Amino acid sequence: MSGAVKGWCPGAHRPMTAADGLIVRVRPPLGALSPETAAGFAALAARWGSGRIELTARANLQLRGVRPGALEALLAGLDALGLLDADPATEARRNVVLTPFRDDARDLEAVAAGLAEGLADPAFAGLPGKFGFVVDAAPGARALTGVSGDVRVEGSGPAMVVRPDGAPTGRIVTDAAEAVALALALARWFLAAGGVGPDGRGRMRALLATGALPPAALVGAATPDPAAPPPRPGPRAGGLCVAAALGEMSADALERVARAADDALRVTPFRMLFLPRVASGALLGDVAGLILDPDDPLLRVTACVGAPDCAEAGGATRGAARALAPYVRPGSHLHVSGCAKGCARPGPAPWTLVARGGRFDLVAGGAARDAPAALDLTPDDARRRIQG
Ligand code: SF4
């Protein structure tokens, strides 16, 4: 991901530069695309980019391989589809992840829309680029506990609560408007309480860890619902989850998904799309790069783009990940990273291979930046270690 600046969130207005061209990240409003919009987005990816679309861990879509000279035309196309914010600042602040598994029981789309609208206020201009909101209040269980966020709107039994990240409990709210008002009030408190450091960065959890406490009117004692297990591809209550192998799908595959959809496609932070009201993946079974089987070995591997698409990479990654996937035991996971930055999985994994000079260093139970347990492995060496 060369060209990205730490602590700064790229978007459509501020693309990143990589060895294979510009990366243009799009935040679909409410994390959803109508079938027509999804098909239009796929056409833009094929026309102005390399046709490769990445699904990110914050439920965004990234177009790869965009030529600098094509950016203006691509942005015009995104604007025509309603996928472009008015300006870079508005785009950067609209950092809201909405659970894809919402139903009509709570008006969570109104919460997410209200947050996006409220965040356009210049009063929030000082929020760090990574400061985000997670709307995870579908009844029953929280799906997004693994998604980074600073203010969380969650379920608590029959109620909805708003909680600053880092606090174990939150305050009960009665409706979407109250949830938005309280979440934005917590963001205002974060700014006023000195949550942003001199370098422009800061997180709610870190601020609370200093002992800072929001005023009593912004906190509460309600415990959020338990965490749901990670979703798996295939049918589930309310629709169908379609995973993208290694987090990437082709423009053709997205166009096929759009044709199979019955309603707006929801982009998830699990490198999957969720198709409400679609009961079966029969229409998608033959589409390369899509995963509908929850036991597919490719779900046990993660890999960044590696060489040659990223200039930082010490070697290719995705071929090794595909080749090694069948040897990763169920319940385990292998992360193949092009370098120690570990973009595809910043946290630890049971196994991490880090490319270096065309070979791999192996980290056991750590992250790509951690000390390796073995150096200079070939993929065959790595397979024996992972199996053994
Ligand atoms: S982890 Fe992968 S994508 Fe990120 S900088 Fe390294 S090689 Fe590039």
From TrEMBL:
Q: Can you give the residue ranges of the Nitrite/Sulfite reductase ferredoxin-like domain?
A: 18-80
Keywords associated with the record: 4Fe-4S, Heme, Iron, Iron-sulfur, Metal-binding, Oxidoreductase
Which superkingdom does the taxonomy of this entry point to?
A: Bacteria
This one is known as Precorrin-3B synthase
Q: Would you indicate the residue range of the signal peptide? A: none
* Entry GO MF terms: 4 iron, 4 sulfur cluster binding; metal ion binding; oxidoreductase activity
| Pfam families the record matches | NIR_SIR_ferr
